[in-house]
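Milestone M4 deliverable, item 7.
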Amino acid sequence: MSDTNKKSRKVTLSIILSIGLSIAVILLILYFTLDAKPFEALSAVHIRYEFFVAAVLINVLCWVIWGARLKILSNAIDPNVHISLWESTKIVIANLFFAGITPSLAGGEPVRIYLLNKDGLSTGGATAAVLGERLIDAIFLLLCLPFAVYIIKDYINVEFIKIGLSAGVVFFIICIFLLAYAIKYPEKVKTFLIFITEKLSRLSKKQTRNKSIVQRISREVDNFHQSMVFFLTREKKAFFQASFLTVLLWSVGFMIPSMIMLGLGLNPFYIESYAAQAVLLVIVMMPLTPGSSGIAELGTAGLYSVLIGPSLIGVFVILFRFITFHMNLIAGGIFQYRIFKSFTAFSLDKLEKHQENPPE
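Output delivered:
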């Protein structure tokens, strides 16, 4: 079997796993919570469909805000390459498909880099823009997390969520530490990551692949270091503008659950829901399943069951995941197909063919 067919099968399997896990876990939640009570609860309230529409529109607005952030960072790197808001928003939507079928939502980053490169940015410049997004998101979550945990801790009574939250926080702190350390001491971070990779590679017989991984780690750490030095020393204005849009992006997106609750005739719990979303985001960043499918559904059910109650939690999870996951996957798939003429054609090989040095 050719490498192309193998990669195509791997992507197809990721799509099946991502969607399948999501549906399977939702069905399990419905199985354990669905009885006459949800129908009685729904019949007892006046369903406000306009809030469901508002939730969908908020999700679309998030794509536009994300596009604006990517536009600012990209144009700051190379003023001679003008990327419009519509073009950057298309890139964001296209990246949603691969983000939704890869662990930690990481698959969208290579797509954004590749498409920015096609629009005129060097591969190094495109990498700098995407890594800038990554750093700003990490800073935002780092600042939010203590307040979020403080607000939501009394509502968490599910052991799975407590374990997931603890593991997620530890994993997140380690990642933040490595990111911060990579800015100051890139060579030490490279040495550490390569050491871990070589230890793990002893379990694999594919030495060529292991060598490729080591080279990629070295390149990515260098890219990150040079990108962050670029933004923090030469483009502070763009960095702060992108930071403002990041706060706006996540704050607007965190309103979606409250809109769904209002649509179901429930209290919106704005503050508690904001905190729950920040906590959930940390949990789904754990690289466990494609698109964090299954993990996100269980985390949502565990975090919101106390706020909503068991009778409507299944309905809430269906609506929430459809708007924030399945809708993204559908829209991303459409744009992915329009750009690549296939759902499985994109791979990291496309990036390696255009690899250049990032901006200094």
